[in-house]
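Troubleshooting: if your tokenizer reports a length mismatch, compare your output against this known-good record of 116 residues.
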Amino acid sequence: MDDATSYAVQLSIGGMTCAACVGSITDGVANLALQGVSNLSVNLLSKSATAHLADPALASILASAVEDMGFECRVLDVVPLSKGLVETTKGDASSETTKEASSRLIALQLVGLSTV
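Known-good structure output:
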């Protein structure tokens, strides 16, 4: 899947109680890889999942597949993963090198954080 045209989806999943639930979801949506769903990551602790999609319309299909397995599922966010040009280095007048960077969705859960 080309990151220039892919999307990241974040899902909220209710009803997961153990690692077997995570495995069931991961295995249950494996067939969606042929439709353009990749890099699925299910997190039991945060009761969430993230995945890369070839088309943003796949977010609702993915959520429906999870719901069909008996879990509650809601799409929280869909964002494009775009490539951008971040650095251009010029050597002599006839050569130019461009580096590309990819955007990535990162979900973090902070535990034990307190304020004073």
